[in-house]
């Protein structure tokens, strides 16, 4: 049986930045792998 860690992030004002090749920086709706690892390491 595989083991999983399932959790829900809730932050109505949260945004997850992506690469900014110019002056405009876009965001994703979901965090990247490194963002999730940072949250786990900080907690």
From TrEMBL:
Pfam families: Cas_Cas5d
Statement: the UniProt record of this protein carries the keyword Mitochondrion: no
Protein's UniProt keywords contain Metal-binding: no
GO BP term, example: defense response to virus
Domain of life: Bacteria
Keywords assigned by UniProt, alphabetized: Antiviral defense
Entry-linked NCBIfam families: CRISPR_cas5
Protein name, as recorded: CRISPR-associated protein
Taxonomy of the source species: Bacteria, Pseudomonadati, Pseudomonadota, Gammaproteobacteria, Enterobacterales
